[in-house]
Every structure is written in C-alpha cells, then in structure tokens.
Amino acid sequence: MPNPIIDVVIPVFNGARTVESAVASIQAQTLRDIRIIVVNDGSTDATQAIMERLAAADDRIVLLNRPNGGIVDALNAGLAACTADLIARHDADDLALPDRFERQSDWLRDHPACCAVSGAVIHIDEAGRELGSQSAPMSPDLADPTSYPQQEPYLIHPFLMMRRAAVEAVGGYRYVFHSEDTDLYWRLQEMGQLTNLSQLFGYYRIHGQSVTSVSTLNGRISAMSSQLAGLSAMRRRSGRPDLTFPKLALTEYKQAQTLKGVVRAGSRGLDADEAVRLAASTSAKLLELTGYRPYELDGEDCSFIRASIMQALPLMTPANRSLCVRMLSGTAARLAAQGLIAAALRMSPVRFYPVIAARLALRTMLPGSFRVAMRKVAGRPALVK
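^ thats the sequence. predicted structure below, dont judge the formating
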C-alpha cells in the first residue's frame, strides 16, 4: 500500500491467542485503503509465525519484529513507519466493527478542528463473550487536571484515530508507564479538539492479565503515572518547564513497591505543592481503580491514602471534597465486607465510621447481581468486589 488513507498501528506481545481475530477485524473494514502495521515486541509464543502467515496473504500487512522493549517503544516504532494522514490504533486482543474506520475518518474529514476521535465499545471476556456492559467515556472537553483524581481527556485507546500531523507535533508517546495514552491525550488536546462519539466502534476485551489488572503494584504505578501526566499538562499550560519521563524510572517504581514509595519516586522534580497534589490525586485514582480491578489495597496503602487525601481536602472544591469522602467511606465499607477490618479502619477517619457502617449494611443487603446491574447502567466494568 504505497499511499494508504489510514495507517493502523497494532503492538503485540505474546498475543497468539487473539492477534489473528483482531487483525481479521481490521482486514474486514469497509474502507480498504489501509496499511496494517503490526509491531511484534519480542513475542516468545507463536505470534511471529501467525503474523508472517497473515502478511504473506495480504500485502496491506507490514510486520515489524523487534526485541522486547515495552509498549511505548513498540508504539513509537509503529508511528515511525506511518505515512498516511490518519493513524488508527488497535490492540491485539480487541475487535473492530467493520465500518469503524469509515465512520471515524468521515468524522475527521467533516471536523477539521478535531485531531483525534474514539467512541463507545462493548465489553467482552477472555473467550470473546459479551459481558453485558459498555464503555462510553465522557467528553474530553470536561477534562480538569486540577481535580482529585484528575478528570482526564480520555479516549478508549485501542479504538483511537488521530491525525498524524498532530501526534508527530507532540512527539509521540512518552514513558508515562501504564498511562502513556492519558499523557498523549493531554498533549493532543493542546493541538486541537478531542472527540468521544456515542457510536459503538467495537469489542473491548476485559481480562485479568491486562497490564493495569495483573498486580497491585502495576495499579499503583498506573494511578501515579496518570496523575503525573495531568501535572505535566498543568505545567505546560501555565508556561512552566514540562516534566520529563525517563525510561529507567519504571525500575525505580518497581523497586519502591509501596504506594508511598511509588509516589515519592514520582515526586522528584516537583515543588512542595505539586507533591501534595500528586499524593492526593494518586490516592483518589487508586481508590477508583480498585473499585473494579481484580486486586485490593493493603493496610499500608490505606494509611497513605487516608493521610494524603485528608491533607488535600482543604484545597478541593466542595463537590470534589464530597466525592473523595464518599470514595474513602465506600472503599472502607468494601474492605470491611471482605473481612479486612484492620485495613478498613486505617482507610477512614473515626468521624466517618457511621457512614461506613451504613454503607456496609447496604452492601450486605444488596445482592451482588444488583450491584453488577448498576455498574452496567453506569457503563462501568461489571466486576463487583
């Protein structure tokens, strides 16, 4: 494809179980003038053999085999191979609806001020079965880096289409570990409009082996990195020098292990006010993540979260303060319901105990199926803890 309309970047690491179906959903697009750039990030399973077979049968597929370097390096390698005006993202375990690219490219053609677009997805499990829930992120125009946790200008990353000129202008992806997409969106927002359409674009796989679900440590790093990306945006937008994100920082985060240690490592180079903000917003973000991720907070996490959020409460708007208090009491009630009483007590100040008791009673009375149904109504993943 010498002059494709769209270049599609698909990074993959050990994706032999799902990569063929994911690529097939791209091959079946109604818009045919595309190039499919698959970046094999040092897979040790049958991924390379599968992709070599698919590339031999379809000259639109370009396979880039490289040593394992992580998702950011893989994504940037894919971007470097792109020449089309439009770049689409797709993951090796998700499925696109056949007219996804046609509808997204039409939107970008008709809205020249928009530099990136995504939309709604249906959740499926590891076997490809629909979970009965959907995700439809809020408008990126509502993004607010000053809230706790930050309201991010989020677009569902595997279903993103963006203008190549915009992503090249902001320098591609940076080493904002497990939140490289969020960081990209903050920067793209400074180039033009971001849009989340209400239309369904495909099937998004929910599974326990995703990077941000596989361990509590990855959750801590993801929460902190996402909030650091927002602080970075605040700096740029106020005319201050931007933060830097060295690749070697991931090793330091992993060695730190605890939430307190991860936040301390991420705070290097921040002033005192930024450090307080990072600790509190990271804590609030982790409370949000543990509401539906398959891992739980430990007692040390709880103590740090409580202290960080309580310190920042006077800095919050009344609505944001109310949200954080609800998150603290709700998480404490969830921990207590699991028998983690000591952790629950470390999570919340004594004056919140009556609220926790009431929420615990409500959790006890309402069956899990009802709470699953409510999450579906809210468009959130169906896992209930």
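The chain has two domains: 6-205, 216-377.
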